[in-house]
Specification:
Length: 656
């Protein structure tokens, strides 16, 4: 399915957040496809960029006290810097605040209008700012919450222009039907078909309640309206090629593949083709929707503090190892859980044992037996069977790439490495050389080198620098020419001399990053378990968790506590602490109570207020004065307060 022009895109990322591994995943897949496409000699154009308009960005900027443009400049640069740091081979980085993009989006609006696809009405409904999406009431969860992200939606009633999406229902269904691979993986295509068959509403494509967006074309004379951010954003795929301005790169259109996450499939698989039909532009060849990366089984989110920073991972484990891991670990379209353990296993096993070790074995054998010389002239004579087996695997690879089955691609690409490792074990060069079979041994080295060369070429799109380094050791360069020679024409590797080189994938023995999130979870668990253990221990001992013996209810009722009113209060002169009180607890006589509360209450404060009195205490003497009860009070670091009834109660009322 080779085509001369190959246009590959990522979503343009919102500038309300910094990049996490989800963003890196999409971008790395797209980069690998672009690199592969270039390697096989296609004229490739790879686009990424940032999505900078809309209510969400406006609000994010505002909450930080910033102007939207200034804020967008800053975050957009962070994305671009990260992709540069990650060696992402984009040809253009588009920003929706670019003047050319805005012009192109306006042009599209005019064209759709001329086509008769745009009309003005009032929009009444619910809007989720986080998803920048309108929802009919029926789809809301509990009548309020967004069915996609679960956040609260707001009711919107405003004048709006609409796009006649409903008019495209049949044509969309025909497109899905006639192009079984238009949405990958195929299971996702079925979801989209079911959605469209359920009926499409026309789409509100302008907003008036804020103004951070592309203005409508002049002929509309509608200064209050800005374009709906998804219309603006989707247009980036063609404005980046010059649509609406100089059309310079429009010959790259239609896209070979738009790579996206499954969260934004509806916009790409329904709105976007409908817009393109309205603009009379061809439809993309594929829309590839990948799954979610989760963390320890949970969705990543800033509020949970479990977002994986791709830069940290790449710095610790190696950028290209990380690229390999992401593409190999999860079948395209499925969700994947990020764990350092899984990453380490891939590096130590697939990369270290299978690939790195093979390079080492070749280096060892060639240097020990032939001073580093590797010649492949006799490979076909002695090892044609192995070569055939390798070629069989290589021939299967290409469809996997463009059907986005990258994990299958890498899995199949490892088979030739197994062939090579198996051949060494089977033919035992150390025995052959002793037996004087020098030609066979040299040819075996030639076979290993040839296999390593072919695998390196095919792996180049995923691990460009690593494979360049292997190729250098094998005396050749990875390029469209060597692809032609060693993959398409199935040649054996040219002779070369192997120098000593460092190990490619030093073994990683323990996790290299402190997993703050996991540590926090562990601490939380430990604390919870300690609490539970304490509770069990207390239950066993018949105490509360702070060691106080449990009592039965009958024991509690042995204490009589009553409501009373302080009817007389005086300070005990010689004491700093004591007040002398007379309290009416509904008996014939008032009770005299000496209370140690003078530091917090004056006699005046307490007079005529209600208190709770322990009424059946044996009388005691304090500073020579008889005390016939005790007031209930609570004391902590901030001082003491009396316990009182919430509402006035008759004196003598029992507390139970
Ligand atoms: O949606 N796992 O931008 P965005 C995997 N501006 N991929 C993830 C992910 C995760 N946990 N989280 C995000 C937008 N992604 C729009 C796009 S295109 C015309 C406009 C990836 O910044 C995934 O590709 O929210 C998703 O589609 C993209 O980031 C969304 O990025």
């Amino acid at each position: 399915m080779s085509c001369k022009k190959s246009y590959i895109t990522t979503p343009i990322y919102y500038v309300n957040d910094v990049a996490h591994i989800g963003h890196a995943y999409t971008t790395i897949i797209a980069d690998s496809l672009a690199r592969y496409s270039r390697l096989i000699g296609e004229d490739t154009y790879f686009l990424t960029g940032t999505d900078e308009h809309g209510q969400k960005i406006e609000e994010s900027a505002k909450s930080r006290g910033r102007e939207p443009q200034e804020y967008a400049d800053e975050v957009s640069k962070k994305f671009r810097d990260l992709w540069d740091d990650f060696n992402i081979s984009y040809d253009k980085f588009i920003r929706t605040t670019d003047a050319e993009h805005k012009k192109g989006a306006q042009k599209a609006f005019s064209v759709m209008n001329k086509k008769g696809d745009v009309y003005k009405d009032t929009y009444q409904g619910h809007y989720c700012i986080s998803c920048e999406t309108f929802f009919p009431e029926l789809q809301l969860v509990d009548g309020e919450f967004c069915p996609d992200c679960g956040k609260s939606t707001s009711v919107v009633e405003e004048e709006s222009y609409f796009f006649k999406l409903s008019a495209y229902e049949d044509r969309l269904l025909a497109w899905y039907r006639d192009n079984p691979n238009c949405i990958l993986p195929k299971s996702k295509r079925n979801e989209v078909i079911r959605f469209v068959e359920g009926g499409l509403n026309d789409l509100s494509i302008t907003r008036t309640s804020f103004d951070w967006g592309v203005k409508l074309p002049k002929e509309f004379n509608e200064p209050k309206h800005v374009m709906y951010v998804w219309l603006d954003a989707l247009m980036n795929y063609v404005t980046a090629l010059g649509y609406g301005t100089d059309d310079k790169n429009m010959d790259y259109w239609p896209a070979r593949v738009h790579l996206i996450g499954k969260d934004i499939l509806r916009f790409h698989a329904i709105y976007w083709p409908a817009f393109l039909m309205s603009l009379d532009l061809p439809l993309p060849k594929h829309i590839g929707a990948h799954g979610w990366w989760t963390r320890n089984g949970e969705k990543m989110s800033k509020s949970k503090g479990n977002v994986v920073n791709p830069k940290e991972v790449a710095d610790a484990y190696g950028l290209e190892n990380f690229r390999y891991f992401m593409l190999r670990e999860v079948p395209f379209g499925g969700d994947g859980d990020f764990s350092q353990r899984a990453l380490m296993d891939r590096i130590n096993s697939d990369l270290g044992n299978d690939l790195g070790n093979l390079v080492n074995r070749l280096m060892g054998m060639s240097r020990k037996y032939f001073e580093g010389r590797v010649e492949s002239d006799l490979v076909k004579k002695y090892y044609q069977k192995e070569l055939d087996e390798v070629q069989l695997s290589l021939d299967k690879l290409e469809p996997f790439i463009f059907e986005l089955q990258l994990h299958r691609f890498l899995e199949e690409l490892w088979r030739p490495l197994t062939v090579a490792n198996r051949a060494i074990d089977k033919y035992q060069p150390w025995t052959m050389i002793k037996e004087g079979k020098s030609d066979e041994t040299m040819a075996l080295n030639g076979l290993i080198a040839t296999i390593l060369a072919k695998v390196s070429i095919m792996l180049h799109a995923v691990m460009p620098k690593t494979t360049d380094s292997i190729a250098k050791s094998l005396g050749f360069e990875i390029s469209p020419e060597s692809f032609e020679k060693y993959i398409r024409n199935d040649e054996v590797l040219a002779s070369f001399t192997m120098e000593k080189r460092d190990a490619l994938f030093p073994r990683i023995e323990k996790e290299l990053l402190v997993d703050k999130h996991l540590e926090a979870l562990k601490k939380e668990k430990e604390e919870r378990e300690a609490k539970e253990a304490k509770k069990r221990e207390a239950e066993k001992n018949g105490t509360t968790t702070d060691g106080i013996a449990l009592i039965g209810i009958e024991q509690f009722f042995q204490t009589s506590i009553k409501i009373g009113t302080v009817v007389k209060a005086e300070e005990v002169k010689k004491s700093k602490k004591l007040l002398l009180l007379q309290v009416d607890i509904g008996e014939e006589y008032t009770r005299q109570i000496v209370a140690g509360i003078k530091e917090w209450y004056s006699a005046e404060d307490i007079l005529n207020t209600q208190v709770c009195v322990v009424a059946n205490l044996k009388p005691a003497k304090l500073m020579g004065m008889k005390s016939e009860g005790m007031l209930l009070a609570a004391k902590d670091g901030d001082g003491l307060c009396l316990i009182r009834p919430e509402k006035p109660k008759s004196n003598g009322t029992s507390i139970s």
